[in-house]
Design brief:
42% helix; TIM Barrel; eight-stranded parallel β-barrel; alpha/beta
Length: 345
């Protein structure tokens, strides 16, 4: 199992807790990632949203790509996975930026491709937000251009959404043939794109049984598409580690007690503009990315046993959220990671 975490660029992950003691600043983000790198974490995921979907649209949040470039320069080992949403980006410019950050990081920069779901944000920031399947058509063209520019000396493309002519990109990324392309998707259209064009699959929080079914399905899709199997299967999860189960359950109760809905501004778009396989309840949405569904809540041994069950189901990367992030990531690294190894052996 590899261990990663979501970089806290929104000021936290809890929609029901106003101040999580994790400010949305570059200095805090740098402190978290440098500390996590020392504690043995493999990956960080930097979400890309121009509005704060966790604390409300009037709250601060920091931008993903400029943050990624800055963090690439002050870290040494950790993978920096940064989200990219084609509705906001020029693919040729994105390919150039990604190649540059890959060099800054010495080959540690990867992408999480997100087709987008928040119509209001797109309206405010000039994104070309179209219907669901059309957004994935755009993503397909976007990815084909990225890969073409990263691998060919000169590349042209004439599509529905993008057209480039005799484009040269140098230097190429250090990673060959390309920086790893992670993506998630729950619709059939999304899974088609992942099975044909991406390198790794990331999913929202699921139960063990749900995760195993999704991974099995994606493996079958890759096989039918004539592609080699994906490099990684990652999953988001919110972790609550405490000395006793009672303490963990008390914390769970605290963070899911809905008192104020100001942080739920994107809830309607999230559930209506994306095609979700499961009905999302308000309690699920209290924590970002369905993070409570994997049930990483309890003592170190209880959490470790759950992790081994997910590993058996095919998950090989956990993308953790916690609050406050730095303190809880340290607790997880010192108490849960060794316990997983102990139980495995």
């Amino acid at each position: 199992m590899r261990y990663g975490f979501w970089l806290p660029i929104f000021g936290g992950w809890l929609r029901n807790v106003e101040d999580e003691q994790m400010p949305p600043t570059y200095e805090y983000a740098k402190d978290v990632i440098q500390s996590a790198e020392k504690w043995g974490y493999d990956t960080t995921l930097i979400a890309e949203l121009y509005l704060n979907d966790i604390k409300g649209t009037d709250a601060d949040s920091i931008e993903a790509w400029s943050t990624a470039a800055a963090l690439a320069a002050v870290t040494e080992k950790i993978e920096i996975m940064t989200a990219v949403r084609p509705v906001f980006h020029n693919p040729a410019v994105t390919a150039k930026m990604a190649a540059n950050i890959d060099h800054i990081s010495n080959g540690r920069f990867t992408l999480n491709v997100v087709s987008g779901w928040w119509a209001e944000e797109a309206k405010q920031y000039g994104g070309d937000f179209t219907e669901h399947d059309e957004r994935y058509e755009r993503t397909t063209e976007f990815l084909e251009i990225l890969k073409g520019l990263w691998t060919e000396e000169t590349f042209s493309y004439d599509g529905k959404f993008y057209k480039i002519e005799d484009t040269k990109l140098a230097p190429k990324p250090l990673q060959r043939p390309n920086p790893v392309l992670y993506a998630g998707g729950e619709s059939d259209k999304g899974k088609q794109v992942i099975s044909s064009l991406c390198d790794a699959y990331v999913i929202h929080g699921h139960t063990v049984e749900e995760a195993e079914a999704k991974i099995t399905d994606m493996k079958e899709r890759r096989k039918k598409a004539g592609r080699e199997q994906l490099q990684s299967f990652g999953m988001a999860a919110y972790v609550i580690c405490r000395d006793t189960e009672e303490e963990a359950q008390e914390e769970l109760k605290r963070i899911t007690d809905v008192k104020d809905t100001s942080g739920y501004s994107g809830f309607k778009d999230f559930t209506s503009k994306s095609q979700l396989e499961q009905q999302i309840q308000l309690q699920d949405y209290s924590v970002s990315n369905r993070g409570l569904r994997p049930n990483l809540v309890g003592t170190p041994e209880q959490i470790a046993r759950e992790i081994l069950a997910f590993e058996e189901a095919g998950v090989d990367l956990l993308l953790l959220q916690s609050s406050p992030q730095k303190e809880e990531l340290e607790r997880f690294s010192r108490q849960v990671m060794p316990k997983v190894e102990e139980l495995r052996n």
